[in-house]
Amino acid sequence: MPIPEAVRRALSGSRKYWPSDRRLRDAVRNQPFYFQGRQNQKMLVFQRLEESYEHAEPVDWSASDLSIEHIMPQAITDEWRAALAAGGEDPEAVHSELLHTLGNLTVTAYNGQLSNRPFERKQEILEGSHLELNRTIVPSRAWGRAEILARADGLADRAITIWPAPLPGVEEPEQGRDWSRLHAALAALPPGGWTTYSDLAELISSHQVPVGQHLANTPDLLNAHRVLKSEGRVSEGFRWSDPEDARDIREVLEQEGVRFGADQGADPEQRLRSDDLADLIGEAIESLTPEEDREFAWRRLVRYLRHFYHAEGGRLHYTVARDLATQEGYDPRGVAGFYRGAGSLAKDGEYRVLTEVGRQLYVDNRYLLD
Fold first, then answer.
1. How much of the chain is helix, strand and coil, in % rounded to 5?
2. pLDDT, position 241
3. How far apart (Å, rounded) are the C-alpha atoms in residues 360 and 366?
4. Looking at CB atoms within 10 Å, which of 80, 132, 168, 218 has the fewest?
């Protein structure tokens, strides 16, 4: 028996988890692909999808400086909100439910230029791309739920052609929404930290309303009291699982180390956002291995600074900077040294800015990327 057929037969057993075509389509539409697997695994998926277009002049992936880009940006702007609302969408719902799904993701070397720009500007930039994954986005007249799901369905068709389903006859267990990622993130949420319903919703590509309902209706859910409203206040509807538990939720959080300000809101510096939660459960962040030598680490730093060098004014929104740090394999919470003293980057409100030190460092060492 040929090896591929033997592997397929072995993995098609009823106790193996190999998704059917139906499950794959559903996952491509609804699951946060951005938070799943290591960076090289996700890039391999994008490479196979791109190769399925059979372009006459294929891209050399090994020599390309490609990284994952959100088409609808992570930091949604007023322009994006207005564009989504003009199409009859609920901007916050579309953003929280579809932001990290495969239909809203692509690969490019122009993350810094694309950033949070309106869809029309992104179209202009992507039009010059050599990747069919990007060129197929350009004809869209807008970018909302319908376009993201249509692209997801098209990519799912290609994925089904590339990767076969298990052998026929394997029964599929019934499955509702998978809350395991949310439960794992809550269990890992440390004392002194807090998160929000919207952060959890973004982590699992849902909306904050069903997340709130799940937390309220799931007894004894570990650390559910550490989930607050977006402004850092306790939800009026929060109740302990034990109806006789009369503890004051804010007092409990303060005893755990959460700081509250004069506005009654929890300290935003202690908030764990969706990518922080993904890091807690071992997703998204791919750390350096001991075998990676100093030259590789230095080249990675130069590559990271290049995004700022080519960005307008050397400035990137902190969410974009954090996203790019993740793409390069950094833990975004471990790059504080970039901002200390005569660092390569400086903080300017919600933006991270390339300093003269950083600019000179990049100019002097960009030959490493040739």
1. 50, 5, 40
2. 81
3. 10
4. 168
- What six digits make up the tokens of 71? 């088409």
Residue 234 reports pLDDT greater than 50: yes
Q: Are residues 32 and 73 in the same domain?
A: yes
Do 255 and 205 sit in the same domain of this protein? yes
Residue 161 confidence (pLDDT): 93
Count of helices and strands (H, E) across the chain: 17, 7
290 vs 142, which has greater pLDDT? 142
For residue 352, what are the β-bridge partners?
316, 347
What tokens were used for 41? 């695994």
The position carrying tokens 């609804």 is: 30
Residues 6+ apart with CB under 8 A from 210: 177, 201
Q: Which residues contact 366 (CB under 8 A, 6 or more apart)?
A: 302, 306
- Which residue range(s) make up the domain with 364? 294-369
* Residues 257 and 333 placed together within one structural domain of the fold: no
What percent of the chain has pLDDT above 90? 22
- For residue 224, the domain's CATH number is 1.10.10.10
Q: Token pair for residue 20?
A: 């059917």
Count CB atoms within 10 A of the CB of residue 230: 12
Q: Say whether both 147 and 9 belong to one domain.
A: yes
Same structural domain, 147 and 184: no
Report the pLDDT value the prediction gives residue 324, as an integer from 0 to 100: 79
Q: Are residues 190 and 266 in the same domain?
A: yes
Distance CA 227, CA 189 (A): 10
- The number of distinct structural domains making up the chain is 3
Q: In the listed set 105, 129, 162, which residue is the last one of a domain according to the structure?
A: 162
* Mean pLDDT along residues 311-331: 78
Q: Is residue 198 part of a domain?
A: yes
**Per-residue pLDDT, 153:** 96
Residues 350 and 300 in one domain: yes
pLDDT: is 326 or 333 the higher one? 326
Are residues 23 and 122 part of one domain?
A: yes
N-term to C-term CA, the chain: 46
Cα Dmax for the chain: 71
pLDDT band of 128, cuts 50, 70, 90: confident
Mean pLDDT of 271-281: 82
Q: Is 169 inside any structural domain?
A: no
